[in-house]
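Design a sequence for this backbone.
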């Protein structure tokens, strides 16, 4: 059996109870063998629990009406505005890319034509 390296990220996920069951067993085995890491994780767990006890009530509070009104009055519409900005940026990018790609053709005075087409533009007199 190969034991993978336990990283700080693994320890943080262990504290947050977000590890896969197999990885949780690996971290627990690691902590049984490393006293200083186990003490550090214990301290982190106590801190996380204190934060949960302190901040959980705030997460269940309703948003104050004054804040909702302030956001509405300020015209806060991030999703729609973000879509418009991203669309404009994409349009500019595509236009710039098309211009850059066609630049050599325009500088050389050439055009893209199918085989057999006349080199002379339509409407120009021919003798």
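Sequence:
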């Amino acid at each position: 059996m190969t034991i993978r390296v336990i990283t700080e990220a693994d320890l943080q996920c262990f504290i947050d109870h977000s590890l896969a069951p197999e990885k949780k067993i690996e971290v627990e085995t690691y902590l049984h063998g490393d006293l200083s890491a186990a003490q550090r994780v214990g301290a982190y767990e106590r801190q996380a629990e204190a934060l949960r006890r302190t901040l959980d009530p705030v997460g269940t509070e309703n948003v104050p009406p004054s804040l909702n009104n302030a956001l509405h009055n300020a015209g806060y519409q991030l999703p729609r505005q973000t879509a418009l900005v991203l669309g404009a940026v994409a349009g500019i990018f595509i236009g710039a890319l098309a211009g850059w790609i066609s630049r050599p053709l325009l500088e050389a005075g050439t055009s893209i034509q199918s085989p057999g087409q006349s080199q002379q533009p339509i409407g120009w007199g021919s003798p």
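The two ends are 88 Å apart (CA to CA).
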